Amino acid sequence: MHGTTLGEWRPTPQRAAVLQALTACDGFTSAQTLHAALTADGVVVGLTTVYRTLRLLEASGQVDMVRDSDGERLYRHRPADGHRHYLLCRRCGLSLAVDSEEVERWAVEVARVTGFHDVDHTLELTGVCDNCHAGRDGGRTDA
Amino acid sequence: MHGTTLGEWRPTPQRAAVLQALTACDGFTSAQTLHAALTADGVVVGLTTVYRTLRLLEASGQVDMVRDSDGERLYRHRPADGHRHYLLCRRCGLSLAVDSEEVERWAVEVARVTGFHDVDHTLELTGVCDNCHAGRDGGRTDA
DNA sequence: CTTAATGCAAAATCTTTGCATGAAC
DNA sequence: GTTCATGCAAAGATTTTGCATTAAG
Predict the structure, then answer these.
(1) pTM here?
(2) B52: Cβ under 7 Å from strand C?
(3) Helix, strand, coil shares, percent, chain B, to 5
(4) CATH 3.30.1490.190 fits B83-143, yes or no
């Protein structure tokens, strides 16, 4: 506690670049993909810094994190209206924010009933979007 | 398809041991922990086999899998009444099966509204159980 | 000037794969 | 006798950490 309102860390071009690149992305992005995009964009930033920045952003609630089927962390800039859940297309990666009020309420109820404290929840929906389902180009069994 | 009803693979002592050990566990267990338990129990089985067996069990729906906060895969023998969700205590690892009918229905509705196909969902609840919350013995920040 | 961020390389984890041996059918 | 499972060791992958350099306050 030194006096600053919130977000205690030091502004740097790298951090700005990471957040901006993440905001520019439509869906969820991995640290590695983000780093590649930045590099391709001419921005020189270390992979390490990308990882560190994403962790900070997640900790400060500025981004959402989910895990893909391999356990890889995927990040997305949070739309500024708080907690959100997404429906990801397994084929094309399309992400849709879904209304989860019902689930939120359910989670609170579960916390109350079970007597657990500080209950947090992670919810990941995956499927095949109508578009991909229509023109099934692959033939992939599970990926 | 060779004629067998279901569960196409070959019965071996190792596979039996893994499934039995998993069943004996109360909560969720990682492959490594399970392997350690088996070894401690005098059962000689390779870590590789544990991994492979758990994947088979998951694929055939005999076990549930969640991921802890580090992305590590945790397995649990499925109680025989299908799809389940759990509430895990971050302190002691206690796992509670929670009734998720509401969420199941919600997921189906989301699938319908969005036009997605084969929608699957992963839901993980974590918190601090009343017991741990009462007698906060540690002071651990995250592990 | 002091404190913190960067970035490279190396480490640490969990998980999967190659290949020879042994078990199951 | 053929086919599949096992297990060791090595590879693969993602993410974190050590440490000197450089930038920010």
Answers:
(1) 0.78
(2) yes
(3) 40, 25, 40
(4) yes
Q: Among B103, B14, B19, which residue's Cα sits nearest to residue B61? A: B19
Alpha-carbon span A52 to A49, nearest angstrom: 5
Q: Which tens digit of pLDDT belongs to each residue from B32-48?
A: 999 999 999 999 999 99
- Is any Cβ of chain A less than 8 angstroms from the Cβ of B5? no
Q: What pLDDT, on a 0 to 100 scale, did the predictor assign at position A70?
A: 83
Q: Could you check: is the Cβ of residue B39 within 7 Å of any atom of nucleic acid strand C?
A: no
In chain C, which nucleotides are within 7 Å of a protein Cβ? 4-9, 14-18, 23-25
The residue with greater pLDDT, B81 or A68, is: A68
Question: d(Cα B67, Cα B56) in Å, to the nearest integer?
Answer: 17
Residue A17 and residue A43 in contact, taking contact as beta carbons nearer than 8 Å: yes
Task: Count Cβ atoms within 10 A of the Cβ of residue A39 and give its class: 0-12 exposed, 13-18 middle, 19 or more buried.
Answer: middle
The strand ranges marked E within B68-115 are 73-77, 85-89, 95-98
Domains of chain B, by residue range, sit at 1-77, 83-143
Q: Is a pLDDT exceeding 70 seen at residue B65?
A: yes
CATH 3.40.710.10 describes domain A1-77? no
B35's tokens: 């392997």
Token pair belonging to A34: 């983000």
Tell me: the pLDDT tens digits for B87-110?
Answer: 888 877 788 888 888 999 999 999
